[in-house]
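To the wet lab folks,

You asked to see what we're planning to order before we commit. Fair enough. Below is the target structure as tokens, and below that is the sequence we designed to fit it. If anything looks off to you, flag it before the synthesis order goes out.
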């Protein structure tokens, strides 16, 4: 049977019944994309978006009116970047159209990232650490410090293992996007001390009470709870806001270093001009 024949016709199910998103439905949808000539990497991006969507669907895994809007809010609460959320919803819109139910699509996109992820100041960051210490919440203290000290994607948190921290760097990403993240010495020291006290001698350091790696939602919730206690706007309590704080601080230092280099070069040229410069 031709793959295109697998595409379902507009189904007669009632609007209230919703559109299911089972694994089999997803595979047929992806097969249809491939049959239409979509590049393998594009199909893979669609697959990842469907996986993200599945994480926040209702228990019956059906899409109804309003479902995609709720999914969008859930993805944001879980700490996903606005660009990623927009991509997931775009794929979801394509999927429900493929299933013959355009009425379930979500037309509007997210606002700008600046509005969704307000800036966290350095003072607020330090206050978060102080409050975490006063409350004895070492795990969330380390989460806050990690994301504000390194360009660490929250979805790669399980890569922060005893082995990688001991080595001084965490390898994240795959293929061409693979990169190494260097961890500052002070962060490595605190992470390894925490792991030893928790009896963790190998594997991921950040675990839930069930000894499973922390999810993005778990991490964001923990940081936002700390923000609430610290009287800091909870919308600033996300790994993404902490990462932006790190990147802003790094850029400021790099700009200062670049300025010092320019000034040193200028002084060198001035000194040479005094001795061998052409008279003007």
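Sequence we intend to order:
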């Amino acid at each position: 049977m031709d793959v295109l024949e697998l595409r379902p016709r507009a189904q007669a199910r009632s609007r209230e019944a919703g559109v299911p998103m089972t694994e089999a439905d997803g595979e047929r949808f992806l097969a249809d994309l491939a049959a239409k000539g979509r590049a393998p990497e594009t199909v893979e991006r669609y697959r990842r978006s469907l996986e993200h969507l599945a994480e926040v669907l209702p228990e019956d895994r059906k899409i109804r009116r309003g479902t995609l809007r709720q999914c969008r809010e859930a993805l944001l609460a879980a700490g996903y970047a606005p660009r990623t959320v927009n991509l997931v919803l775009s794929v979801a819109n394509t999927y429900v159209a493929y299933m013959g139910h355009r009425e379930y699509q979500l037309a509007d996109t997210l606002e700008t990232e600046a509005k969704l992820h307000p800036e966290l100041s350095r003072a607020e960051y330090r206050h978060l650490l102080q409050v975490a210490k006063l409350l004895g919440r070492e795990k969330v203290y380390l989460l806050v410090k990690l994301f504000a000290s390194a360009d660490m994607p929250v979805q790669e948190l399980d890569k922060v293992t005893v082995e990688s921290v001991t080595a001084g760097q965490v390898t994240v990403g795959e293929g061409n996007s693979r990169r190494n993240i260097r961890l500052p010495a002070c962060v490595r020291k605190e992470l390894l001390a925490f792991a030893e006290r928790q009896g963790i001698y190998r594997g991921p350091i950040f675990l839930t009470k069930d000894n499973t790696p922390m999810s993005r939602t778990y991490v964001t919730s923990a940081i936002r709870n700390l923000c609430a206690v610290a009287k800091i706007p909870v919308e600033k309590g996300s790994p993404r806001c902490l990462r932006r704080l790190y990147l802003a601080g790094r850029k400021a230092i790099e700009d200062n270093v670049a300025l010092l280099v320019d000034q040193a070069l200028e002084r060198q040229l001035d000194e040479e001009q005094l001795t061998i410069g052409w008279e003007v």
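Structural context that might help your review: The mean pLDDT is 84. The CA atoms of residues 136 and 264 lie 47 Å apart.

Thanks,
Computational group
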